[in-house]
C-alpha cells in the first residue's frame, strides 16, 4: 500500500495500481526483446539462403537454384527452429511448397494486411507485425520480390523453369510476381 498524506486527508493507494503499471512495462520490454530475437532470426535465415541461391544460380543455373531452394530453405528453417526455441518458416498466400508454406489463419490475415499496407505505399522490406496470440509471440516479416527471385517467381518464366517448377513443386502457385511485390513472409512463433 502507498499512503499519501495531504494537508486535509490521507489517501491510500493499493499496490495493484503500481503492479498493473509495472506489469505493462515489463510485458512491453519482453515484447521488444522477443521482436529483436525474431528479427535476428529472419536476418539469419535470409543471410544464409540468399548467398546459397546466388551461388547455385551462378554455378548451375535455374535447376541448381530450385534444388537449393527446395532442399536448403526447409533445412535452414528447421535448424533455426531447433537452435532457437522458435518455430521458423516461410509462408505465402500463393504457396510454392504447400505442405510447409501454407499460412494458418493468423498468418493469412497478416499477409493480407501486408498487401494492403504495401498498396498504401509501404515498402515490402519495412513491413512486419508482432503480436501475442493464444499465449504465443507471433512475428512476421514481409518478403519482397528481389531481382534474383524473378527467375523462378516472376511472370515471364522460361520453359525450362516452368518444367523444373512442375517437377519440384507440382502444386506451385508462387509465380506471376513483380519486382518489389510481397510474395510471402518469414513467420516465427515462440510459446510464452
Report what the structure shows.
By secondary structure, this protein is α+β, with helices and mostly antiparallel strands. The chain has one domain. Helix content is 54%, strand content 20%. The strands form 2 sheets. It has a 4-stranded antiparallel beta sheet. Strand 4 and strand 5 form a beta hairpin. Helix 1 crosses helix 5. It is globular. The two termini are 30 Å apart.
- Supply the number of structural domains: 1
Supply the number of helical segments: 5
Bin the helical content.
40-55%
Shape: globular
- SSE string: EEHEHHEEHHE
Strands ordered across the widest β-sheet: 3-6-5-4
Distance between the termini: 30 Å
What would you say about this model in short?
This protein is an alpha+beta fold. It contains five helices and six strands, in the order ββαβααββααβ.
